[in-house]
Every structure is written in C-alpha cells, then in structure tokens.
Amino acid sequence: MKTLYRQYIVVTLTVIIISITMSMLLIGQIYKSQIRPDTDAKNYGVAQEVQQILKSMPKESADAYFQSIAKLGYQIGVIYPDGNLVSYGSAFKKTNLTPEMVSIIGKDEVYHGIRDYYGSSYFMNHFANDIKNTIGVSFQLDNESYAFFIRQENATLFSEMHLLIVSFIIITAVVILLTMILLARQMVRPLKQLQQATKQIALENYDVQLTIDRNDELGQLATQFQKMANRLAENDQIKKDFINNVSHDFQSPLLNIQGYANVLKDAENTEEERVQYLEIIEQETKRLSALTKQLLLLSSLDQKNLPVQKKTYSLDKQLKERLFSKRWKLDDKQMELVYELEPVEVFADEQLMEQVWDNLLSNAIRYSEDKGKIIVTCSKKDSQIFVTIKDNGIGIPEQALEKVKERFYRVDPSRSSQSSGLGLAIVTEIVNRHAGQFVIESELGKGTKVTVILNVQ
Which residues are the signal sequence here (predicted)? Predict the structure, then answer.
C-alpha cells in the first residue's frame, strides 16, 4: 500500500527534480538566446574601442595600456608576433590557443569565443576562466601584427549571474506552486467527496456510493466509510423491519384479547363459552409475555459490553432437566424421545444456555408431526463439546436455511402462529457470545438436525 507520507515524499522529490530540470532548461535557453549574445556584444564593443586606440599608440605604451584596462576588471591575453602569449589582469586558468584564434592575427576578423564557447557545464560556461572564452581581434604596432583576447573577470559578471539566479528562483517557484496546486486538488477531491457523503449520512440518507479508487490511507478510509454506510443502511432497514414485525406480533394477540374481552361483556354467554374465551385471553397474554421476554433478551444480547456470567457446571444434567420440562409436550403429541448424554462439564452462562436448549427443543417439538421422534446427544471430543438435536419433522427448505437465524424470519408464517421468529436468532447470539458454533442441517419433509459446538473452557 502506498501511504500518504510516502506519496508526499515521492511527489515532493519529483516536483523538486522536475522544477530544477525545467528551470535549468529554461535558464539555458535564456542564457543561450539573451545573456551570452549580450555579453559577447558588450565585450566586442570594448575590444573595438581598444583596437581603435591601439592604432594610434606607440609600441612602447601598449604594455602599460593593457595593464590599465586589466585594472578595470578585464582579463586580457595578447599574442605577440613571436607567438608568445602574455596575460594581463587575472591569469587565465586555461591558455591553450586554437588554430582559429591564431588565424585572426593580421586579418580583419573577430574571434567570438564568448558566443561560441562550449564547456562541460552549459550556462556555467559564462564563468569559464579559459582564454577560449573571450572576444579576440587583431591589431598592429610598428607594422607588426598582434592579436588580443579580452573578457570580463568573473567578479564583474555577477549582474548577469543575478539575472540567472532570479530567473531560476522564479521558474522553480512557479513550477512548484502549480504542481502543488494540482496535487492539493488531487488530495482534496476525495476529502470533499467524503465530506458530502458525511452530510448525507447525517441526514439519515445511507444510500451513499463513493467513487474513490486509491491505494493509500484515503482509499482505506473511503472503503471503510462505504462499509459503514452500507452497514448503517442495513441496520436502518433491520430497524424498520423490526418495528413492523414487533408491531404486527403485538397487534395480533392484543386484538384477540380486545375482541374476546368485548364478547365476555355479553350477558348471554354460557359458562362454557366464558371459560373458553378466558382461556384464549390467557393464551394470548402468555404469548405477549413470552414475546416481551424474548425481545428483552435480544436487546440485552445486543449490548456487546454486557458481561456473560460464565461458570463451570454439568451440561448433561442441564439437558436432562430441559428434556424433563418438555415431557408433557412430548406426551401430548405422543412423540418418542431418545437421548444419549455423555457426562461433561462446560464453562458457560448457565441461564443463557438454558434459553438455547429451550428454544431448540421447542422448535423440534413444534415442527414435528404427532408420533414423531427426537434424538438428543451430548459428547466431548478434545476441547470441544457437541450437542445435537435431531427430529423427523417437516424440515426446512434449502433456500430458507441461510435466513432462519434472522430475527422475525418465518419459513412459512401461516404454518405456526405460535412462533415469534426470534428463537433461532436468540440461539445464534448466545452461541456467538460463547465463541461457539451453531449449525443447522435440514431436508424438507425429512427433518432437521441442529448442532451446537461449545468450547470446554
């Protein structure tokens, strides 16, 4: 992953390199097209003036004259008729003469070394202390031909250097500024998109789709933000469904209670009818009470920081007690119960696990036909405990297996008005709180097998 810090360093270095490169290229062009020709022209003008003065000057005075010019900040090299090179002013670092330089002696030609000089460092050629980096002209003294080569000393060239430095700074600053503006826009764009998305979330509009495709912290933030928005949308829909389902599940028994309460007001009801209506009201009241308890249990389980009161207890004993409590329901439907419970101890919340076994056993009985069969087993393998409850009831369609653990989900709402659709959701939450596994296997028309896997410790 490319971090923002790493990107910033890379981009900054890239900007600096590009800026310096562009500045060097542009300054090179300025030097080539403006500064070097101007410097060449200035020195040529000085050389012409010196040449004119030398025409009327005695040979004996030439040496003193060249020394006086050198004191004005010039470097001068004079080729005498015998071929010797004499320097005035600061000595040249390089004094190798080219055939072109020697060839102007005695001719009305000009050597434009400043204009045509190429050294190893382009615009730094301006400061090359080389006799080839000069302007050269020929002159005569007492009918003898000479040539002199002249250039300004480096100390006097800083006005041109100042121009180069200022140009370099301005160009570099402009390139860096423009690049940083583009970079800032590139970095701010996803932040603005996140800002707009945040406003939508604040307005409870969770249908947010971000188009930020980055492989850095901003990309990670956008991905997590999108997940958060999707989760909020899911939770919002769950909340709405929850309210609708709770309203429906409460409304149905309340309407029944209200209806039968009104019927009881009729004085013409027989004693048998009154008892029947009261039993219905009692059943609906119990149904409301059970639903309320389940909702309260789910609400407490939703509080992730709610501690689970774990302790070590006998699981096989607990299962036997829950089976015994369901005995009358089994007898009522003439069902066969087979159980094989290995003596095991588990470290868990005893009350919560009691809810698990009650829900699973109730489902097995409720969705089995009369004279059906239920098999319950409990065994231990290594550090895990396996509890299975198997029935030969109506089973669950394959397409519904993934949804049966959802709250208020009913495979067929019409087949059982006694189910709230919360039982398996409660089982799932409790088992998850114990870091266990809850597995459902079922085949329509053949029965269902549920397995709860718990850790010993």
Answer: none
